[in-house]
Amino acid sequence: MLFGQIWSREDQLSARDRSLITIAALFSAGLFPQLESYIRLGKEHGLTKDEAIEAITQLAFYCGWPKA
Known about the structure:
Elements: H1 2-6, H2 15-29, H3 32-44, H4 49-63
Helix pairs in contact: 2-3, 2-4
């Protein structure tokens, strides 16, 4: 369901944006083992390295520097 129906609904939210949201959720929950694969998937969906860095910098202020 998640990867088939939810991720394929790009007319509501792009795969790039879904990747960014997923990365933020995993980061904030401290689920670092999954984070690496979702960052890679985000790159496949058009997320740039600079955008990923900015997202993690932004999250560091809200989730705590130790996680960053």
